[in-house]
Amino acid sequence: MAPDAAVKQEIVKVYATNKGDTGSQEIQIAVMSHRISTCPTTRSCTSMITIPVAA
Length: 55
Fold this sequence. Notes:
The longest helix is centred in the middle third of the chain and has 13 residues, at 25-37. By secondary structure, this protein is mainly alpha-helical. The termini are far apart. The chain has one domain (5-48): Helix Hairpins, CATH 1.10.287. The protein has helices at 5-15, 25-37, 42-45. It comes from Paeniglutamicibacter antarcticus.
């Protein structure tokens, strides 16, 4: 489950690298880490995680 808006805003506030930053690597990693850590079961969340495969 994706974090709600309030949680995501707090993550952005904590991990932003500069004013107006909303998509840096730090923020993306923090959001994904939050999604993984709050997932009820690993099996139900694996569909949310996609890993690109080289052809």
